[in-house]
Amino acid sequence: MFALALRSLRRRAGAFTATFLAIFLGAAILMAFASLLDTSLGKGVPSANRETLVTMANVVGGWGLLIVIFAVASTLTLSVRQRGTELALLKSIGATPAQIRRMIVGESAVVAVIAAASAIPLALLAGHGLFAMLVDTHQIAPNVEYTFGPIAISMGLGITFVAATAAAMLAARRATRVRAAEAMIEATTEPGRMTKKRIATACVFLALGVYLAVLTVTAMRGKATDAMSTAGSADGLAAIGFALLGPALIRKVIAIAAVPLERLGGASGHLAVENLRRRSDQMATALMPIILFTGISIGTLCMQSTENAVTAAAGVAKTADQKNIETLNLVVIAMIALFAAIMLINTLVAATTHRRREFGQQRLAGATPVQVLRVVALESTVLTATGVLFGAAASLFTSIAYSSARADTLLPDSGVGIFLGMVALAVVLTFTASIGTARRTIRTPAIDAVAA
């Protein structure tokens, strides 16, 4: 089966692009921040600088690790689900579930090794740029030498490999639990309910977000920037919880928006509603980066805005620790925003490209290219609205908690501006990726698309 996995990779290289990019970018992020640990172990590094490097690596790198694992798992799950017909055919000709699992895990392992190794040059550049920023902001002494060493490489290669193969095992297990005939049916439909394990995991993340928010408002009240240690993680945990509930959230939103969409969009609106209902699991994969992007970005920026306002109102200059914390927050936002944006585009491109045959069938049934694009636009509208809505809800776990603990107010003054800015960026990314890909996809003649 490993030989079959290699042949599958050669013949279907384009289909593994989304998985490759997720692992490539994830490995680059992990190695860039892990290189700060290599640097902290260098000779002559002052203790204060060592503490800054370790803190930056652990806090930002830890969040990066969690988001990377989540993103890789989602991308691999989407990839396996899109191959439902192929896996069902393998079962029908005698392949055992164990053989199919070995094939899927073997493919993921090869992609993980290649992607992680290819990310080393980018990680070196990113890590050096991050270190230079710390030097330029006077948080690291100029005589400290940057090091990209064994810690960065081992963490980048090891963690991404383990994450990719573990995610592949979970996705393969789900794909091989049913018999061949049932698998053929599942290849064209989606399960109506999420698993109990997924729901339980989502509830755990949401509960942790609530716990940190409450802890911030109570135990951390009056403790200045120390409250960021609890408030800063609340929005991320809540965003992951909402993202795990993605299929259910999409179904709930479409149940509310179905009538307006069908009235305003006509036939295109009706088709968009049906597609969202049938493809809620696939749509949830694209929903994940929108929720993470809006939730963590809005929450962290509002938290930093509150801190800046409190400092300005007190009429005092920022201390070195406050500058370090502000830099840390901005780096977190930059990392998450970049990774989530790329993952959003990556996921939407992969999901939309996979619908080439569906678009061809619609056009053969009489739909015009404009109508097909209108369907995709309506789907993107619902997807963006859902992601922004629950991303904003996740951000409240941090913004309200920190504002209450630090400034005795519920929301920061600049909260609306930050929200609108993040929403605008999410809209641009979603529509550019989905409409742009759909436009390129329907250039293929309909008969060729169906026959492919």
Question: Rough shape?
Answer: globular
Number of helices: 17
Major sheet summary line? none
Total E-strand runs: 0
Helix content: over 70%
Which range does the strand content fall in? under 5%
Poorly predicted runs are 180-185
Report what the structure shows.
With 452 residues, the protein is mostly helical. The chain has two domains: 1-189, no CATH class; 191-452, no CATH class. It is built from 17 helices and no strands. α3 runs parallel beside α13 (320-353) and α9 (196-218) packs parallel to α15. It is globular, with a radius of gyration of 23 Å. Residues 180-185 have low confidence and may be disordered. Residues 61-177, 331-444 form the ABC3 transporter permease C-terminal domain. It is a multi-pass membrane protein.
Quick synopsis:
This protein has helices at residues 2-11, 17-40, 47-82, 84-92, 97-118, 120-136, 150-175, 180-186, 196-218, 228-244, 246-278, 280-314, 320-353, 356-364, 369-407, 415-441, 446-451. With 452 residues, it is mainly α.
Layout of secondary structure:
Layout: H1 2-11, H2 17-40, H3 47-82, H4 84-92, H5 97-118, H6 120-136, H7 150-175, H8 180-186, H9 196-218, H10 228-244, H11 246-278, H12 280-314, H13 320-353, H14 356-364, H15 369-407, H16 415-441, H17 446-451
From the structure above, extract its key features.
transmembrane; 2 domains; mainly alpha; Macrolide_Exporter_MacB; about 450 residues; globular; 17 helices
